């Protein structure tokens, strides 16, 4: 309970320096003299070489803390004459000064403390059963600006995870990750999470966290657990790879490798394929195959697309979109498309054994054909989580043919991918070629996991495809 407005302790004042001088025993050789203040408790806190002794009043401690109320009425504390002696080596002097000030005055300016000290105060408050102070500290963190909270995400989670008393703060952090899963990827100290903590976070964020981000989190955590670095990957031995796989294999079930952009897959995942059997053969075949040349009359064209830095879609999605764009260009009926199986494969040396296992090794010794220029290259112009919600027009206006893809999170916890293609780009209202408007379309990939629910729609008349100056030219 909080103290009453005034306490009958005239010699305790609210000045920090005066208060700390009053409660601290600086020299253990000097006998304790209580005088009018009637100090009857001495508490030794900290570990060598940072040990300090504090003096207090048993009546105050008992009134404010159920922990001290029980301790002072039992055999927990040593008593010499009229003085109780406590040892609290697991609480630092800095933290205990904050605790004592709260016990005497019922408040403390939390903004004065750095995050780690505040977490230490939170843990100490739980040990000393200061329920009101626990609530106050949690409330402070919950209302803290996210720019200050996110850099300290991992230490706060590790402090709260296994303590039911900090449930409100933990739920707030998990909701923060659900709203913006990318904040988890930026944590350089993610390896400090216990395995159970990371598993719980990934399980709850599975539907919202992009699969490339999921992979990044898992790899960072595993490498940190084994005290390795990606900078030294060329020096890794087979044992290092096997050790890493053993550490993270239980998390790989969360990663849908077929949803990862091809450039990311080849750059970030290819080095691990020999050791990570969880990546299915069909996914490997897709990412390591080069499509055959396209023919305009083919009923099942498979497009070679270039895709840079997307967290929402991969090359499979973009191949389907490229087909829709191409269908509009040649003005032919829309057909259900299937990706064509590819015939040429990369044969990197470190894939040789795995290629034999899955029968992918090329029998031909002829040199591979030169890389084929992509039919379509999609460059990232704007990402809200990167550029902010107000930068859309500055990034996208007058950029030529433009594709917009949006991920909408549903109240049920799932999400859908929708978008549209504008062959003219945005803010092009002069000299409009009506024939080019036939290429415009909107689409939906459903949850994005498969093409079962994929839909694409075009309008029937040219002028229905664009509204001049509507919503500042967005549509």
UniProtKB/TrEMBL annotation:
Which residues lie in coiled coils? none
Q: BTB domain: from which residue to which, for each copy?
A: 39-112
TLDc domain boundaries: 359-475
Q: Which CDD domains match?
A: BTB_POZ_ZBTB_KLHL-like
| Superkingdom per UniProt | Eukaryota
Kindly give the InterPro entries that the UniProt entry links to this protein.
BTB-POZ/Galectin-3-binding, BTB/POZ_dom, SKP1/BTB/POZ_sf, TLDc_dom
Question: Pfam families from the entry?
Answer: BTB (PF00651)
Record's protein name: 18337_t:CDS:1
């Amino acid at each position: 309970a909080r103290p009453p407005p005034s306490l009958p302790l005239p010699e305790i004042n609210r000045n920090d320096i005066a208060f700390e001088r009053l409660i601290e025993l600086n020299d253990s050789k000097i006998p304790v003299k209580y005088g009018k203040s009637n100090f009857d408790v001495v508490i030794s806190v900290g570990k060598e070489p940072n040990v300090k002794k504090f003096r207090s009043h048993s009546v105050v401690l008992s009134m404010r803390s159920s922990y001290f109320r029980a301790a002072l009425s039992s055999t927990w504390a040593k008593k010499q004459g009229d003085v109780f002696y406590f040892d609290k080596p697991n609480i630092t002097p800095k933290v205990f000064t904050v605790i004592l000030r709260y016990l005497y005055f019922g408040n403390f300016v939390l903004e004065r403390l750095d995050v780690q000290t505040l977490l230490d105060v939170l843990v100490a408050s739980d040990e000393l059963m200061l329920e009101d102070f626990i609530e106050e500290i949690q409330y402070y963190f919950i209302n803290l600006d996210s720019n200050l909270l996110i850099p300290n995400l991992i230490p706060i989670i590790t402090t709260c995870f296994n303590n039911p008393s900090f449930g409100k703060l933990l739920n707030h952090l998990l909701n923060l990750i659900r709203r913006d899963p990318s904040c988890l990827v930026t944590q350089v100290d993610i390896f400090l999470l216990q395995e159970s903590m990371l598993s719980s976070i990934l399980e709850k964020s599975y539907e919202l966290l992009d699969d490339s981000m999921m992979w990044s989190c898992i790899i960072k955590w595993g490498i940190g657990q084994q005290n390795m670095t990606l900078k030294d990957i060329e020096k890794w031995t087979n044992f290092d790879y096997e050790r890493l796989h053993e550490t993270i294999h239980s998390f790989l079930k969360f990663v849908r490798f077929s949803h990862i952009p091809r450039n990311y897959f080849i750059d970030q995942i290819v080095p691990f394929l020999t050791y990570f059997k969880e990546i299915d053969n069909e996914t490997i075949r897709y990412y390591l195959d080069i499509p055959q040349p396209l023919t305009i009359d083919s009923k099942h064209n498979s497009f070679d697309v270039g895709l840079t830095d997307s967290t929402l879609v991969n090359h499979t999605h973009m191949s389907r979109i490229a087909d829709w764009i191409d269908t509009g260009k040649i003005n032919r009926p829309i057909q259900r498309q299937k990706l064509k199986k590819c015939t040429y494969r990369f044969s990197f040396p470190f894939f040789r054994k795995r290629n034999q296992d899955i029968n992918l090794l090329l029998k031909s010794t002829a040199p591979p054909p030169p890389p084929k220029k992509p039919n379509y290259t999609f460059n990232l112009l704007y990402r809200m989580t990167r550029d902010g919600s107000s930068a859309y027009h500055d990034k996208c206006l007058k950029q030529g043919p433009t594709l917009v893809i949006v991920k909408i999170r549903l109240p049920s916890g799932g999400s859908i991918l929708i978008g549209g293609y504008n062959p003219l780009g945005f803010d092009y209202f002069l000299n409009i070629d009506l024939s080019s408007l036939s290429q415009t379309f909107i689409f939906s990939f459903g949850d994005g996991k498969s093409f079962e629910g994929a839909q694409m729609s075009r309008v029937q008349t040219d002028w229905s495809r664009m509204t001049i100056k509507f919503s500042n030219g967005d549509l």
